[in-house]
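Ops channel
N.P.: pipeline sanity check, posting one input/output pair.
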Protein backbone atom coordinates (compact mmCIF):
# COMPACT_ATOMS: atom_id res chain seq x y z
CA UNK A 1 0.00 0.00 0.00
CA UNK A 2 1.50 3.36 -1.00
CA UNK A 3 1.49 6.58 1.07
CA UNK A 4 -1.55 8.06 -0.73
CA UNK A 5 -3.65 4.95 0.01
CA UNK A 6 -2.58 4.98 3.67
CA UNK A 7 -3.48 8.69 3.96
CA UNK A 8 -6.97 8.17 2.49
CA UNK A 9 -7.58 5.08 4.65
CA UNK A 10 -6.68 6.95 7.82
CA UNK A 11 -8.77 10.05 7.04
CA UNK A 12 -11.68 10.70 9.36
CA UNK A 13 -14.96 9.75 7.59
CA UNK A 14 -16.37 13.19 8.50
CA UNK A 15 -13.43 14.94 6.80
CA UNK A 16 -13.88 12.73 3.75
CA UNK A 17 -17.55 13.70 3.45
CA UNK A 18 -16.69 17.41 3.83
CA UNK A 19 -14.07 17.11 1.11
CA UNK A 20 -16.56 15.39 -1.18
CA UNK A 21 -19.24 18.05 -0.60
CA UNK A 22 -16.68 20.85 -1.19
CA UNK A 23 -15.58 19.23 -4.46
CA UNK A 24 -19.17 18.82 -5.68
CA UNK A 25 -20.05 22.41 -4.79
CA UNK A 26 -16.90 23.72 -6.48
CA UNK A 27 -17.64 21.92 -9.74
CA UNK A 28 -21.29 22.97 -9.57
CA UNK A 29 -20.28 26.59 -9.04
CA UNK A 30 -17.89 26.50 -11.97
CA UNK A 31 -20.55 24.92 -14.15
CA UNK A 32 -23.14 27.51 -13.04
CA UNK A 33 -21.14 30.26 -14.75
CA UNK A 34 -20.72 28.56 -18.11
CA UNK A 35 -22.54 29.62 -21.27
CA UNK A 36 -26.08 28.21 -21.25
CA UNK A 37 -26.35 28.20 -17.45
CA UNK A 38 -29.04 30.16 -15.65
CA UNK A 39 -27.98 33.22 -13.68
CA UNK A 40 -29.18 32.48 -10.14
CA UNK A 41 -28.36 35.68 -8.28
CA UNK A 42 -30.98 38.38 -7.74
CA UNK A 43 -29.42 40.62 -5.10
CA UNK A 44 -27.87 43.51 -7.01
CA UNK A 45 -26.09 44.80 -3.88
CA UNK A 46 -23.89 41.79 -3.07
CA UNK A 47 -20.78 41.81 -5.23
CA UNK A 48 -19.18 38.85 -3.45
CA UNK A 49 -22.20 36.66 -4.14
CA UNK A 50 -22.99 37.93 -7.60
CA UNK A 51 -24.94 40.88 -8.92
CA UNK A 52 -26.40 42.58 -11.93
CA UNK A 53 -25.95 46.30 -12.43
CA UNK A 54 -29.17 47.87 -11.20
CA UNK A 55 -32.19 45.59 -11.55
CA UNK A 56 -31.16 43.65 -14.64
CA UNK A 57 -30.74 46.51 -17.10
CA UNK A 58 -30.78 45.21 -20.68
CA UNK A 59 -29.19 46.89 -23.70
CA UNK A 60 -29.71 45.24 -27.10
CA UNK A 61 -31.22 42.32 -25.20
CA UNK A 62 -28.14 41.68 -23.04
CA UNK A 63 -27.43 42.55 -19.41
CA UNK A 64 -24.00 42.74 -17.75
CA UNK A 65 -23.60 40.61 -14.62
CA UNK A 66 -20.64 40.23 -12.29
CA UNK A 67 -19.36 37.62 -9.86
CA UNK A 68 -16.25 38.32 -7.80
CA UNK A 69 -15.05 41.07 -10.16
CA UNK A 70 -15.62 39.01 -13.32
CA UNK A 71 -18.12 40.33 -15.88
CA UNK A 72 -20.27 38.44 -18.36
CA UNK A 73 -23.68 38.86 -20.00
CA UNK A 74 -27.10 37.23 -19.72
CA UNK A 75 -30.10 37.40 -22.06
CA UNK A 76 -33.73 38.15 -21.15
CA UNK A 77 -34.23 34.59 -19.84
CA UNK A 78 -31.29 35.09 -17.43
CA UNK A 79 -29.22 32.60 -19.42
CA UNK A 80 -25.47 33.28 -19.59
CA UNK A 81 -24.62 33.94 -23.24
CA UNK A 82 -21.16 35.54 -22.81
CA UNK A 83 -19.00 33.93 -20.09
CA UNK A 84 -17.71 35.87 -17.08
CA UNK A 85 -14.21 36.46 -18.44
CA UNK A 86 -13.98 40.25 -18.41
CA UNK A 87 -13.01 42.44 -15.46
CA UNK A 88 -15.12 44.81 -13.41
CA UNK A 89 -13.80 48.34 -12.84
CA UNK A 90 -14.43 50.67 -9.93
CA UNK A 91 -17.62 52.73 -10.05
CA UNK A 92 -18.98 50.54 -12.85
CA UNK A 93 -22.65 50.88 -13.80
CA UNK A 94 -24.91 49.12 -16.29
CA UNK A 95 -23.90 51.76 -18.86
CA UNK A 96 -20.22 50.84 -18.40
CA UNK A 97 -20.86 47.55 -20.20
CA UNK A 98 -23.66 48.74 -22.44
CA UNK A 99 -24.36 46.91 -25.71
CA UNK A 100 -25.19 49.21 -28.62
CA UNK A 101 -25.40 48.20 -32.29
CA UNK A 102 -24.43 44.66 -31.19
CA UNK A 103 -21.16 45.96 -29.72
CA UNK A 104 -19.95 46.54 -26.14
CA UNK A 105 -16.82 48.08 -24.66
CA UNK A 106 -15.27 45.76 -22.02
CA UNK A 107 -12.13 45.63 -19.88
CA UNK A 108 -9.77 42.63 -19.86
CA UNK A 109 -7.85 43.67 -16.75
CA UNK A 110 -5.28 45.85 -18.47
CA UNK A 111 -6.93 47.41 -21.54
CA UNK A 112 -10.30 48.22 -23.09
CA UNK A 113 -11.60 46.69 -26.30
CA UNK A 114 -14.88 45.90 -28.05
CA UNK A 115 -16.78 42.61 -28.35
CA UNK A 116 -19.86 41.58 -30.34
CA UNK A 117 -22.98 39.85 -28.98
CA UNK A 118 -21.24 36.46 -29.09
CA UNK A 119 -18.29 37.69 -26.99
CA UNK A 120 -15.92 37.77 -29.97
CA UNK A 121 -13.27 40.53 -29.96
CA UNK A 122 -13.98 42.97 -32.78
CA UNK A 123 -11.66 45.84 -31.73
CA UNK A 124 -8.41 44.74 -30.02
CA UNK A 125 -7.85 45.26 -26.31
CA UNK A 126 -5.19 47.99 -26.44
CA UNK A 127 -6.76 51.19 -25.13
CA UNK A 128 -6.30 52.83 -21.73
CA UNK A 129 -9.69 54.50 -22.05
CA UNK A 130 -12.56 54.10 -24.47
CA UNK A 131 -15.96 55.72 -24.95
CA UNK A 132 -18.68 55.20 -27.56
CA UNK A 133 -20.07 58.34 -29.21
CA UNK A 134 -22.67 57.49 -31.83
CA UNK A 135 -21.02 55.21 -34.39
CA UNK A 136 -17.51 56.30 -33.31
CA UNK A 137 -15.25 55.62 -30.35
CA UNK A 138 -13.16 58.11 -28.44
CA UNK A 139 -9.91 56.35 -27.45
CA UNK A 140 -6.94 57.14 -25.21
CA UNK A 141 -3.65 55.25 -25.42
CA UNK A 142 -0.08 56.01 -24.33
CA UNK A 143 -0.97 59.62 -23.40
CA UNK A 144 -2.52 60.24 -26.81
CA UNK A 145 -6.14 60.36 -27.87
CA UNK A 146 -8.18 60.25 -31.06
CA UNK A 147 -11.24 58.68 -32.64
CA UNK A 148 -11.84 55.35 -34.39
CA UNK A 149 -14.78 53.80 -36.24
CA UNK A 150 -16.61 50.53 -35.50
CA UNK A 151 -13.90 48.56 -37.34
CA UNK A 152 -11.09 50.11 -35.31
CA UNK A 153 -9.85 52.38 -38.13
CA UNK A 154 -8.57 55.81 -37.11
CA UNK A 155 -10.86 58.58 -38.36
CA UNK A 156 -9.09 61.32 -36.38
CA UNK A 157 -5.44 60.46 -35.82
CA UNK A 158 -4.32 59.29 -32.37
CA UNK A 159 -1.34 61.64 -32.06
CA UNK A 160 -1.75 64.16 -29.21
CA UNK A 161 -3.01 64.29 -25.66
CA UNK A 162 -5.93 66.69 -25.83
CA UNK A 163 -7.35 68.17 -22.63
CA UNK A 164 -10.56 66.18 -22.17
CA UNK A 165 -12.77 64.87 -24.94
CA UNK A 166 -12.91 67.66 -27.55
CA UNK A 167 -15.80 66.27 -29.65
CA UNK A 168 -18.67 64.94 -27.57
CA UNK A 169 -21.36 64.23 -30.15
CA UNK A 170 -21.50 62.20 -33.34
CA UNK A 171 -22.27 65.39 -35.31
CA UNK A 172 -19.14 67.11 -33.95
CA UNK A 173 -17.02 64.10 -34.83
CA UNK A 174 -18.52 63.90 -38.35
CA UNK A 175 -17.62 67.55 -38.91
CA UNK A 176 -14.05 67.01 -37.75
CA UNK A 177 -13.69 63.83 -39.84
CA UNK A 178 -14.55 65.87 -42.96
CA UNK A 179 -12.03 68.55 -42.00
CA UNK A 180 -9.46 65.84 -41.23
CA UNK A 181 -9.97 64.13 -44.60
CA UNK A 182 -9.77 67.43 -46.48
CA UNK A 183 -6.52 68.22 -44.71
CA UNK A 184 -5.10 64.79 -45.54
CA UNK A 185 -5.99 65.28 -49.23
CA UNK A 186 -4.18 68.63 -49.30
CA UNK A 187 -1.15 67.22 -47.50
CA UNK A 188 -0.84 64.48 -50.13
CA UNK A 189 -0.21 67.15 -52.75
CA UNK A 190 3.17 68.16 -51.29
CA UNK A 191 6.45 66.23 -51.27
CA UNK A 192 7.17 66.48 -47.54
CA UNK A 193 4.46 64.75 -45.49
CA UNK A 194 3.34 65.87 -42.06
CA UNK A 195 5.29 63.03 -40.44
CA UNK A 196 8.46 63.99 -42.33
CA UNK A 197 8.02 67.64 -41.34
CA UNK A 198 7.72 66.64 -37.68
CA UNK A 199 10.88 64.51 -37.98
CA UNK A 200 12.75 67.50 -39.42
CA UNK A 201 11.49 69.69 -36.57
CA UNK A 202 12.59 67.05 -34.05
CA UNK A 203 16.06 66.86 -35.62
CA UNK A 204 16.33 70.60 -35.09
CA UNK A 205 14.99 70.19 -31.54
CA UNK A 206 12.02 72.34 -32.45
CA UNK A 207 9.25 69.87 -31.72
CA UNK A 208 8.07 69.14 -28.16
CA UNK A 209 4.99 67.37 -26.91
CA UNK A 210 5.51 67.36 -23.14
CA UNK A 211 3.64 70.45 -21.96
CA UNK A 212 0.08 69.21 -21.50
CA UNK A 213 -2.49 70.69 -22.14
CA UNK A 214 -0.62 72.53 -24.91
CA UNK A 215 -0.93 70.46 -28.08
CA UNK A 216 1.62 70.94 -30.91
CA UNK A 217 0.23 72.71 -33.96
CA UNK A 218 1.31 71.41 -37.39
CA UNK A 219 -0.29 73.33 -40.26
CA UNK A 220 0.34 73.38 -43.99
CA UNK A 221 0.22 76.82 -45.62
CA UNK A 222 -1.11 75.86 -49.04
CA UNK A 223 -0.23 79.17 -50.72
CA UNK A 224 3.45 79.16 -49.76
CA UNK A 225 3.74 75.34 -49.46
CA UNK A 226 5.33 75.65 -46.05
CA UNK A 227 4.83 73.58 -42.92
CA UNK A 228 4.30 75.82 -39.88
CA UNK A 229 4.98 73.99 -36.64
CA UNK A 230 4.56 75.37 -33.13
CA UNK A 231 5.17 73.37 -29.96
CA UNK A 232 5.73 73.93 -26.26
CA UNK A 233 8.29 72.66 -23.75
CA UNK A 234 7.94 72.82 -19.96
CA UNK A 235 10.71 74.76 -18.21
CA UNK A 236 9.59 74.63 -14.59
CA UNK A 237 8.66 77.40 -12.14
CA UNK A 238 10.43 80.72 -11.58
CA UNK A 239 10.06 83.49 -8.98
CA UNK A 240 12.33 85.92 -10.79
CA UNK A 241 11.56 89.16 -12.64
CA UNK A 242 7.89 89.92 -13.11
CA UNK A 243 7.07 86.67 -11.32
CA UNK A 244 8.61 87.89 -8.03
CA UNK A 245 5.35 89.53 -6.91
CA UNK A 246 3.25 86.44 -7.58
CA UNK A 247 3.41 82.90 -6.22
CA UNK A 248 5.79 82.19 -9.06
CA UNK A 249 5.28 81.54 -12.76
CA UNK A 250 5.07 78.34 -14.75
CA UNK A 251 7.57 78.76 -17.56
CA UNK A 252 7.11 77.38 -21.06
CA UNK A 253 9.34 77.74 -24.07
CA UNK A 254 7.46 78.20 -27.35
CA UNK A 255 9.16 76.83 -30.48
CA UNK A 256 8.20 77.92 -34.00
CA UNK A 257 9.70 76.48 -37.17
CA UNK A 258 8.82 76.77 -40.86
CA UNK A 259 9.79 73.97 -43.25
CA UNK A 260 9.57 73.99 -47.03
CA UNK A 261 6.94 71.37 -47.94
CA UNK A 262 8.69 70.55 -51.24
CA UNK A 263 12.39 70.49 -50.29
CA UNK A 264 12.30 69.90 -46.53
CA UNK A 265 14.64 72.83 -45.91
CA UNK A 266 14.16 74.93 -42.76
CA UNK A 267 13.05 78.42 -43.81
CA UNK A 268 12.95 80.01 -40.35
CA UNK A 269 12.81 79.20 -36.67
CA UNK A 270 12.34 81.13 -33.44
CA UNK A 271 11.64 80.52 -29.78
CA UNK A 272 10.63 82.52 -26.75
CA UNK A 273 9.63 82.06 -23.13
CA UNK A 274 6.11 82.53 -21.83
CA UNK A 275 5.19 82.90 -18.16
CA UNK A 276 1.91 81.86 -16.58
CA UNK A 277 1.50 83.40 -13.13
CA UNK A 278 0.41 81.12 -10.28
CA UNK A 279 -2.27 82.65 -8.11
CA UNK A 280 -3.73 81.09 -4.99
CA UNK A 281 -6.89 82.19 -3.15
Amino acid sequence: MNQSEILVKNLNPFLLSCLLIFSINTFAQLDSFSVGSTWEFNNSKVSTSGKAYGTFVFYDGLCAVVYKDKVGFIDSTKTIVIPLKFVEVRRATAATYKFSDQRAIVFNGSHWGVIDETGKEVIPFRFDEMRKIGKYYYVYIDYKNGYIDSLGNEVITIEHEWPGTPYRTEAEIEKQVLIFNERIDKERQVTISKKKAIKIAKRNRYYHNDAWPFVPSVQLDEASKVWEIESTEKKGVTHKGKCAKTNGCITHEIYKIKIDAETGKVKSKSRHLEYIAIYTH
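N.P.: looks fine end to end. The CA atoms of residues 127 and 160 lie 14 Å apart.
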